[in-house]
Write a structure and sequence with these properties.
It is built from twelve helices and 15 strands. The chain is α+β, with helices and mostly antiparallel strands. The chain has two domains: 2-117, no CATH class; 123-468, L-amino peptidase D-ALA esterase/amidase, CATH 3.60.70. Strands 3, 4, 9, 10, 11, 12 and 13 form a seven-stranded mixed beta sheet that branches. It has a four-stranded mixed beta sheet with strand order 1-2-5-6, with helices on one face. Strand 14 and strand 15 form a beta hairpin.
């Protein structure tokens, strides 16, 4: 509905105004100028926003309609500015209406060029393409068939900036059709719920939720209630919810624990295949990384047919520190924002990151543990050192039918890949993790809370730094 409303607002309304304009010929020159000026400004802004991808309907649907340069208010401003200029220019009767159109076009192109310089794009649009394997069609965790992702973004007043992100390995009942899984702990300063049973049994029986630190238990409780209400769950007396977290307290009134059951259910029930909204959405709404706005990021890799033709997808919730580098370019140092910048700095790279790895390769929980460990290598490539105060966790699972586990099975007859078949999957995991973290930064928008703003990574400066260090940057 958000996308439909956007299209109506951007194109249907000007079309109606265009039709109505034919009936206003008796109006004065200033009125005609205001009408045509406003229409031209509105339409040009709509076309530029559409072509440049500067509007983010998925983020507007996530309850923060102020995000993005071309929000609905911005479109209204363009209309009013155009109307004013058109009225002034057309006050002289010998000034044709198209004069105001030319002036407005020049004005809007200049404004749009400035806006495009800061438009949020994915890492690949900056020329950042780690590794040697190709991404899937979506370059997202949802390239792994059946995996769904849902967000609930919570923005309330001037202090609540948090949310829920849900990852569902398949469309069925996960309690009854469990998937093999593993957990790798890079640094265990965190509150990952469900960890011990996950490690002991090597499987997950619920969706994976990501949220804020003090919201873990409320999120888990809401998910359990939701699962108990599913069909064929009447006799269930034990559920192991898997809920990861990072601490977004710098931007979020975390002590208010603002997560409600409706938020959790919304994330679970709206989870979908396809494109995954990234940046300051869901569990990434209030997070920061490397001193800039962090959030949700995702990427994928296709393992070549000669190595199995498998897919690996990664989704991250970035809220960690370190010395940011992109494809070897020292972005953090060049921008003057990085951990250990001085001998007395308090920034020692603390924070947390949750990394979720999905694959369609039929892996045992043991080999999924080996796969999860490789995600830490992708994290290290971005400049993190997994500091003392960082909670760095990786959850990996396989969606392959050959390794599914029925909840009441007495015997498991599975067909899994041998150890010798793992190397390509390891490489894919490292590459996808690295790029997912970059995407969490490049797609994140600035967020303000209680008078404090965490700025988005300045992509115009990033382009300059990448060029300086020989990382190819495509023309915008």
């Amino acid at each position: 509905m958000g996308r439909l409303a956007l299209l109506v607002g951007l194109f249907a309304v000007p079309a109606f105004l265009l039709w109505a304009g034919h009936h206003w010929r008796h109006r004065s020159a200033p009125v005609r100028g205001a009408f045509w000026g406003g229409l031209i400004a509105h339409t040009l802004a709509a076309l530029i926003a559409t072509a440049a991808g500067l509007y983010r309907p998925a983020e507007w649907e996530a309850s923060d309609h102020s995000r993005g340069f071309f929000g609905l208010w911005s479109m209204l401003v363009f209309f009013l500015v155009g109307a004013t200029i058109g009225a002034i220019v057309n006050t002289r009767r010998n000034a044709p209406g198209r004069v105001s159109g030319v002036m407005l076009a020049a004005l809007l192109i200049g404004l749009a060029d400035d806006a495009a310089a800061q438009a949020r794009v994915r890492a690949r649009d900056l020329g950042i393409a780690p590794g040697v394997f190709q991404p899937g069609s979506l370059n997202a965790i949802t390239d792994v068939a059946g995996v769904r992702v849902g967000h609930a973004t919570i923005v309330e007043g001037d202090s609540v900036r948090t949310g829920i992100t849900a990852i569902l390995p398949h469309s069925g009942n996960l309690y009854r059709e469990r998937v093999p899984a593993a957990l790798h702990v890079g640094n265990g300063f965190g509150k990952l719920l469900g960890a011990t049973q996950l490690q002991e049994l090597g499987e997950i029986e619920t969706p994976i939720l990501l949220t804020c630190t003090l919201c873990v238990w409320k999120a888990a409780d809401a998910m359990i209630e939701w699962m108990l209400g599913l069909p064929q769950m009447e006799n269930v007396r034990s559920i192991n919810p898997v809920v990861g977290e990072t601490n977004d307290g710098a931007l979020n009134a975390i002590r208010s624990r603002p997560i409600a059951p409706s938020h959790v259910i919304d994330a679970l029930t709206t989870a979908a295949v396809g494109r995954v909204p990234e940046g300051s959405v869901g569990a990434g709404t209030g997070t920061s990384a490397f001193g800039w706005k962090g959030g949700i990021g995702t990427s994928s890799r296709k393992v070549p047919p000669s190595l199995g033709d498998w897919t690996v997808g990664v989704l991250v919730q970035s809220n960690h520190g370190g010395v940011l580098q992109m494809m070897g370019a020292p972005v953090g140092r060049e921008l003057g924002r990085y951990s250990f910048r001085t001998d007395t700095t308090r920034d020692q790279g603390d924070g947390s990151i949750i990394m979720v790895v999905a694959t369609d390769a039929p892996l045992s929980d043991r080999n999924l543990g080996r796969l999860a460990a490789r995600a830490m290598m992708g994290l290290a490539r971005t400049g993190s050192s997994a500091s003392n105060g960082s909670g760095d966790y990786v959850i990996a699972f396989s969606t392959a039918l050959a390794v599914r586990r029925a909840f009441d099975a007495r015997r498991l007859a599975t067909s899994e890949l041998a150890n010798e078949e793992m190397s390509g999957l390891f490489q894919a995991t490292v590459e996808a993790t690295e790029e997912a973290i970059y995407n969490s930064l490049t797609m994140a928008t600035a967020v303000t809370s209680r008078g404090r703003t965490v700025e988005a990574l300045p992509l115009d400066r990033v382009r300059e730094i990448l060029l300086k260090y020989g990382v190819a940057v495509p023309k915008r």
